[in-house]
Specification:
Distance between the termini: 57 Å
Strand content: 15-25%
Number of strands: 17
CATH architecture of one domain: 2-Layer Sandwich
Radius of gyration: 37 Å
Helix content: 40-55%
Structural class: alpha+beta
Largest sheet: 5 strands, mixed, barrel
CATH class of one domain: Alpha Beta
Length: 548
């Protein structure tokens, strides 16, 4: 209804352009929309200028000024003095020679202004002008909304539900509207018009049309901000929320740490008789929350994160960002949780990929690995089963370890003297040499060029693997991404997916792969080493400043 009245006011004022009504209308619209009256007047001036151009000619430069006191609209034709060769539009430009007759002592760039009769606009012209003004008013409103909310992203606010559109909730935030998309709502929660709602401002971005403020109730930071409101120690910085993992509407895990040894972070977040955490739970539609003490030691932190299940053993692979967890047989279902919820949340909380197995499964796997390593030594070193088992039992897992360790390390095995140890190493080296020769021959046969073969850091087995993936020259190698070589993880639809690297089976880390690729690019002249040094210096400086 308000918008309709505004349109009528504007149309009536525009139709009678020289009336004081222009000012009154501008002030009324500005007050209603809570914007600067000058913006409305400037929009009116532009619309009147457009109407005048349609009457007198589109090529003319016509400007309109509305007196801020009387409301009188002055229509002026403007012509600019330009050089003869620069003259393009005779309606809005004049040459220096022509300007002598129009102005005393004209100079290039001067404007010659002539007042012209005001335009009496009909209903069609008034309608067009009205649309221009309304558009300018809407743009001003949106600019003001953006300026007001751009610094409030990442905070919680209260709003009032206006309506629902295709499952999305439109929220009145005072100055304009914001949108809570259906995938940002918790579970199946529903709202009716005029319901009060507490939301997290996820993002504020400038848009030409539609909402500019995007809200959320499922974002992890929404829970963090709720705890900050309920727990004074978090607000004051005594307790810090290190990470949050949520299955919105169902379950969540939050890791906290206290910088004051006298304050228990978990107890502070729970509150007296659970009052603090219960307030958060009620806001999140009954979402169960596990509050976990954060620990710098990742295995310890993971054991805490997998609560309420017990953990027997933890094996951490830092390079792969994977962790193996062994639990008692009867605790397996509890550790995994309903539909994998517990282990999934623990994985999100720690940032590690978690493999859970029972003690029986772990024992079977170890036995299988023991048998595979025993078989490897039996076949390659021509040993009997007992001797091969002795090697594995002492921690030898590869031929390289046997070939290149100190002889004294082999002599600690019962029954192994120096002569036997040297024989073992000789057999291992002979096998590795024969294997390398064969791999190199295969790589050459596959078309691998000498520039890649002589490149430092690649073994014959690596060259063979690269050739099978059509990487045959140093240029081919230099175009590879580090994750293509070392492998990695990609998140698809919220699930971590494994990307197998060409050199992953050779235990090449991501950092090593990156170093190899950059070295190749330097050799080819694609990258200047000095640029890399400068980048590293900048990064080190930034890190130092961040630490300070």
């Amino acid at each position: 209804m308000k918008l309709s009245l505004t349109k009528e006011k504007i149309e009536m004022a525009i139709t009678s352009a020289n009336q004081l009504e222009l000012l009154q209308t501008a002030e009324a619209v500005a007050r209603e929309k809570m914007i600067d009256p000058n913006l409305v007047i400037e929009a009116m001036e532009e619309s009147l200028a457009r109407a005048a151009k349609s009457r007198y000619g589109a090529d003319l430069d016509i400007r309109v000024e509305i007196d801020r006191k009387t409301g009188r609209a002055t229509f002026t034709r403007v012509r600019t003095v330009v050089e003869d060769e620069m003259l393009q539009n005779t309606s809005s430009e004049v040459t220096l020679e022509q300007a002598i007759d129009l102005k005393e002592s004209p100079e290039l760039g001067d404007e010659i202004r002539d007042e012209i009769p005001p335009v009496e606009m009909g209903r069609i012209a008034a309608q067009s002008a009205k649309q221009v003004i309304l558009q300018k008013v809407r743009e001003a409103e949106r600019d003001m909304q953006y300026e007001e909310f751009k610094d409030r992203a990442g905070t919680i606010m209260n709003g009032v539900v206006k309506r629902e559109e295709y499952g999305n909730i439109i929220v009145d935030v005072g100055r304009g509207e914001a949108i809570l998309r259906r995938n940002e709502k918790i579970g199946r929660e529903s709202y009716r018009p005029n319901d009060r709602i507490r939301v997290y401002i996820k993002e504020v971005k400038r848009e030409v049309r539609g909402p500019q403020i995007f809200l959320s109730r499922t974002d992890n930071q929404f829970m963090s901000e709720l705890f900050k409101m309920e727990v004074p120690e978090i607000y004051e910085g005594i307790i810090d929320i290190k990470s949050v993992a949520r299955d919105p509407g169902s379950r969540a895990k939050i890791a906290v740490i206290s910088y004051d040894t006298s304050i228990d972070p978990v107890g502070a977040c729970v509150g007296m008789r659970g009052s603090r955490v219960q307030a958060v739970v009620n806001e999140l539609q009954g979402e169960k929350i596990d509050i976990i003490p954060w620990n710098e030691d990742q295995p310890t932190f993971l054991v805490n994160a997998l609560q309420p299940s017990e953990v027997t053993k933890v094996v951490l692979d830092e390079e792969a960002e994977r962790i193996e967890v062994v639990v008692p047989d009867e605790q397996l279902s509890l550790a995994i949780g309903r539909r994998g919820q517990n282990v999934r949340l623990a994985s999100q909380l720690t940032g590690l990929d978690i493999d859970i197995m029972t003690e029986e499964q772990e024992s079977s796997r170890r036995q299988s690995e023991f048998e595979e390593q025993t078989k490897l030594f039996m076949e390659t070193l021509d040993l009997d089963e007992f001797f091969a088992q002795l090697l594995v039992s002492e921690g030898f897992t590869s031929l390289e370890e046997v070939a290149y360790v100190e002889v004294s390390e082999l002599m600690v095995i019962d029954g192994v003297d120096q002569e036997t140890a040297e024989e073992l190493q000789a057999r291992a080296k002979d096998f590795l040499t024969a294997r390398d020769t064969k791999s190199l021959e295969t790589a050459r046969a596959n078309g691998v060029k000498d520039d890649l073969i002589t490149f430092e850091g690649l073994t014959p087995q690596m060259l063979e693997a690269l050739s099978s993936d059509d990487v045959k020259t140093l240029e081919d190698f230099a175009t590879c991404a580090d994750w293509e070589l070392a492998g990695g993880w990609t998140t698809v639809d919220g699930e971590r997916v494994k990307d197998t690297g060409i050199l992953e089976k050779f235990d090449v880390s991501l950092a090593e792969a990156q170093n190899l690729v950059m070295t190749a690019r330097i050799q080819l002249g694609w990258v200047d080493p000095s640029d890399l040094e400068n980048d590293n210096n900048i990064k080190n400086t930034e890190q130092t400043e961040a630490d300070m």
